[in-house]
Amino acid sequence: MTVNERHALEALRDPALNNAADERIGDDYESDGYGEMVLDGTEPLDVSHAGGEFQELTRGLLGDFWKSASEKAKGKRSDYRTFRDRSTKQTAAFSVQTGAMAEAYMAWSLKHRGTGGKGFFDSDEQRTREEQQRSCDGVDTRMLSVLVLDVFCAEKTSITVGPTDHYLTSALVHHGLIPCSPITPKVAVTVHTLELYHTTRQRCPNLSIQAYVKSLCDMHGVPFHNHRSRQFSIALDIYLQVLEFVSNLVHRALQRDQPDWRLKHCCPPCTYRLQDEPAMRFAMLFTQDGNDSLKRVATRILDGDIDHVAASLHASERTFHHEQYLMRDFVDKFASDRQTGHSIVNEDSDGNLCAERWKNMKDDATQKMWNVFDESGVFVAVCRHGFCLLVADMVQSGEQSKYALAVTLKLLDAFGSDLGGGYDIGCRFKTTLASSVLGERARSLNYTSLVNAFHGHAHNRLCQLDNLTTYVEGLGLEDLEGCERAFSKSNTLASSTRYASIFHRRQAIASYFEHNDELEVYANLTKFLLNNYKQALDVLSNGHATLDRLMRELGVSDPATFKLSRVS
């Protein structure tokens, strides 16, 4: 343990030093005395697979102590503008020009399709720009000098601004450049450079912008400066914003802009119905679960204290809209009486035999979270084939029932009846769902709450007979453990989203799952179905002989005995 961490523990024990660290950010943020209970051994210290929680706790407790003396000693001109003010004005200026930049990007993409991804400074590309400049002689044009950052080179060059260019930004995009400033751009990054980082990050989510920019500086033979990372981050935001704008235009042209269109068509085997297809017990199977690795450190103001006006902070940020992402307001409609003052479920009439074995069945445990974190993880729903259906942020709490209720309502609205949902505490969620405002609708639509195959073996034996996938007819070989497989890969996002803004964290998570669905899950779907089909044929061909042999060894004469044991 380092000296700083030891001081943090002493601060936890001292009430006078701990007052600032234990202040609340809302009525539902229970943190008073939680650190003391951890030190006393009353409560365990929850550490996710990604780790880093203890370091963030000590950093939050010590505040300005972590700032280096050299940083404080720097004599700079006082700038009373906040980072949030500058970002808000910059975002507003770029938003006005997004349409023009999207048109320029589509024109540039059409012109350069099939070129093999040549660099900006390739001889053929330079010859093309020179021909464009000569063709504009005598026309009302101007030249813009800009520093261009490409993958293998960074040089100052002159860009032609034609009479049809509404903005300087759109003129740069016409040449395959994304600007770093909305008004007077002096630096631009090539589309190929941004595309390389964006694609690489989907395959290696822990690749940070700083590491990538440092690699570019190494290849260019120039020293790294922090402002280069900031410039690249701005250009990347604009590039992704333009891609989103173009994608929305494509969806509108294909009439795919109806509400929940993506959700209703995300998985071909689950959502498409063949003519005269026989009905099955479960029209669709999915699994849902929470993961606490993708935490985000709460935003702080200049004095080091957590910002108490969280609502205004969220409003001032760029809002990230994605059909896959459930907003906080929608999820909070299902909050229990401890958060909102009214009860949406009857928590007292449970009597679940498995409650002592699962922490996320205990309300007093799921409501505690270190106040240094705002988002404490994600709650995800995945179909049986691995496609991500929905994502919701777990905010200032553990894995509470409101997240599962919100996901269930969304899926019932989209897919209707005969759904089967796997959950590691499916037995408890069955009771919660039945006593909630969704209970009557879930019963009318024949919703079935199930327990995953791997997690189910930690449940009570009687619970397993009713809810475990092994004993429920209609599930076949399905184990409903898709969330664990998804989390094993998405946990690598933790290092790059721990300090990100709300917008960038959601953007990174949504982009990762979207890329994974398109280029991993969908690409391997045929192999997945083929292997399952072969396994099913093997069970059908050899299963009867194996069953007869086991029945003789166990002295069982009638197969109906197995069903009688479940009933009894």
Features:
single chain, about 575 residues, 27 helices, about 50% helix, 4-stranded mixed sheet, alpha/beta, 6-stranded mixed sheet, elongated, 10 strands, about 10% strand
Short description:
The protein has 568 residues and is α/β, with parallel strands linked by helices. The chain has 27 helices and 10 strands.
Q: Give the amount of beta strand, in percent.
A: 5-15%
Overall pLDDT score: 79
Give the neighbour order of strands across the main sheet.
6-8-7-5-9-10
> What is the number of beta strands?
10
Principal-axis shape equals elongated
Largest sheet: 6 strands, mixed
> What is the count of DSSP helices, taking H or I runs of 4+ residues?
27
**Structural class, from secondary structure content?**
alpha/beta
What gyration radius follows from the Cα positions, in whole Å?
A: 28 Å
Question: What is the helical fraction, as a range of percent?
Answer: 40-55%
Oligomer: single chain
Taking pLDDT < 50 over at least 5 consecutive residues as the criterion, the unreliable ranges are: 12-32, 64-73, 301-316, 337-349
* Span of the ends, CA to CA: 55 Å
